[in-house]
Amino acid sequence: MAIPEQCVWLSEPSTAKVDIAKLTGFDGVILDVEHGLFELRSLDWMVSYIKANGLRAIVKVLGPEREPIQQALDFGADAVVIPHVESVEHAMRVTAFAKFPPLGDRSLAGGRTATYVAYTDEGVAEMDRSTKCYPMIEDAGALEGVEEILALDTVDGIFVGPTDLALRREGGIYTANDAEVEDILRAARAANAAGKPWIFPAWSAKEQDIAVREGAAIVGLAMEYSVLYSGFAKVKSEFEQIVERNGS
Fold this sequence. Notes:
Blueprint: E1 5-10, H1 15-23, E2 28-32, H2 40-52, E3 56-60, H3 66-74, E4 79-82, H4 88-95, H5 121-130, E5 132-137, H6 140-144, H7 146-150, E6 158-160, H8 162-168, H9 178-194, E7 198-201, H10 205-213, E8 218-223, H11 224-245
Parallel strand pairs: 1-2, 1-8, 2-3, 3-4, 4-5, 5-6, 6-7, 7-8
């Protein structure tokens, strides 16, 4: 059984958090630009720093538009995750921005990805192979068309977003109930059948069990805010127990 690659999920730029991810044995970092505090300069140096530490740099871009997709890839991201993909037709259009013509519609830019010199045909083809594009399955229309989305040549795999998917399927707040798990399994098994990887933010033991059992390629295991909250709460609780034992 293959072990999924394990990633830290960051919403703020921090080299220290990348260092800790490296020291604790994580494989990569997911940068949440959509809901995070990244601007272009910080995204640029964060991607470089992650890769310099030998970790995979995955960027969940600001939205399903040309500019944020191309910018993340121009900075050297190993993969882009594209949120709010609504349908097969929408996926066809926006994932094209992650691949160069004739495969897609990504624009050429000088700089890091061209080694600051010039592109070659071989270099462009290699970037299309090595940089990955993962549309998010977090909309009812995307889930309905997941098999067709996975069949697109500009799609390297999918990122299953259970929280928004639950809301958009009119299920309310995501709790990993039976119906929500079935949606996750549908997307995961479609990816497996297509021979393409799927990514999953697996914060709970139940979600992690699904990820391992169903063959997720990459999992988000540690979301920085949740880890900080748990750590702060644990320290405070332990200190309060000491105070209580001493009768204060």
